Structure formats: C-alpha cells, structure tokens
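Worked example 2:
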Amino acid sequence: NRDGYVTLYEMKPLLQDLGFNLKDPGMKALVDVFDDPNSGELDFLEFVEFFGYMCRMIVKKDPEAAYMDYL
C-alpha cells in the first residue's frame, strides 16, 4: 500500500509465489525473525534482510530454480 512497511498479509502472495505455502502462524514466525521491534510489519531494511534470506532458501532448495534468472 506504499506506506513504507510490508505486513504479513502483503507478503503472503510473495511467499506463495516463491513456493512457501505456510499457514498464517508459520508465516508470522518467519517474519518475526526479521521484525526487530515486533511491530508486525517490516520496514525497508528488514524486508531486504528477509528477502536475502528467502533467496538463499530458494538456492538451497533448487539451485536451478527459474527465480535465479532474476538474481
């Protein structure tokens, strides 16, 4: 919504597109790792950390993943 923060529900489609079909509690637990003040949303730097982690997970899961074309 362009407010400078990303919420769990805004990231849910992204995670699903990346092949992570987690239920809400699992997604919240994953996001909580990067949500430093436990605000329930990620600011830009937290999101960059989160996405870097997700990219590493994709590479470990499938080094030949189509997503690698974008990295």
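The helical segments are 8-17, 24-34, 44-61. The first strand starts at residue 6 and ends at 7.
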